[in-house]
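Recall that a protein's primary structure is simply its ordered list of amino acids. Everything else, from secondary elements to tertiary packing, is in principle encoded there. The following example makes that idea concrete.
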Amino acid sequence: MVHLQQFAGQTVHFIGIGGCSMSGLAVILKNLGYKPKGSDINESAFTNKLREEGIPFTIGHHAGNVEDAALVIYSAAIKPGNPEYDRAKELKIPMMERSVLLGEISRQFETVIGIAGCHGKTTITSMCALILRECGVNLTIHVGGMVDFLGGGVAIGDYPAFLTEACEYVESFLTLRPTVILVNNIDDDHLDYYKNIDEIYGAFAKFAALLPESGTLFANVHDPLVQKLAASCGRRIVTYGFENADYTAQNIEYDAVGCGSFDAITPDGTTHVRLSVVGRHNISNALSAIAICHDTFGVNLADAAKALAHYHLAGRRFELMGEKNGVKVIHDYAHHPAEIMACLEAAKRYPHKKMWVVFQCNSYTRAKTLKDKYAVSFGPADMVLVPDIYPGRDIDRGEIHARDLVAAIEPNSPCEYIATFEEIRDYLDEHASPGDIVITLGSGSVGKETKKLL
């Protein structure tokens, strides 16, 4: 079994270093005294951070890139056939998958906070990060998205605590050694890996079981599976929600653009919170962040509220991409039916005449297994436009097409199949009017494709 500490002070090569998580882990390793370097196919939003940190990287994957490495780190996207992966195997260089490295790093800290759930992880983690750093808790942070106040997805701290997203895909969060866990929701996602919701719940149960006896589980009272987990895990439980919880959000109001404000009712008093982000789901996210920061670190409630007042969402979360012909174009990473419904409910309060939604499903498996739920997810939309499915990790076996999604959605929401984003741009140029909004939804490459609409 390979352990990180075996390679202290040595060269560690990252295959795919330009990814959000991989680049962040490279920065953390540098701070821990290692010599990270890496390669990727393209520049990314995160390679500038690598330059700032003085971490060398090359563009392009070549076998020779790994030959001076004592340890090679690879992401889930890297498979046999990649020249660097194959050369490392040939030279018998020790190798470690990204999530395993994250787990190894977590062992370096006294307190490890894992933010888990099928939806909302990046937002809750980045909200916690902002509160803690503004309140003087200078801990190390690992977020799975671009966070403006961090200048990337990572921050290095001197406080002996580590805050990280804990991702359930392929059970990668089981490599962590958490002392505090938050579970926001448990839903039927990643069905290309899990067989069913029971397997997904089982993964979360195994994750909760990693807590020490002195550990704490923060649980959303409005998710039945999270409550089942809380009831059975045998650890201290702290709950949050809109009612009947240790931390509740009450007296909720929204401003003219849909940003929420509320009273956070806590075991130690009440504070008023005013957000600069839209939607009821982000009120819940903010409340959970207050609960973590106040209960775990003793952060003053008023100071937490002050920090959240200028929180802005991580990249690809209700992000205004631009405006064309008086039509605002907004992109959101939402790709699961529950996320889509939350996003569009928030969008209803955003000023607009007509709401156009462009939804690209990011895998054939997801399209097939969640089709019936997608069918009823677009209620607030005036028109839904569906391009071809983005394959992601999948192979097209001819079992489902974007037209099948359209056929499912159409009885509930006006919907059309338009194959490409270039054709969608032409369609919107002809049909959208000043004062309308366009919301593009999906993971995969939708963020890049959205720029074509502008």
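The mean pLDDT is 94. The domain at 8-97 is CATH 3.40.50.720 (Rossmann fold).
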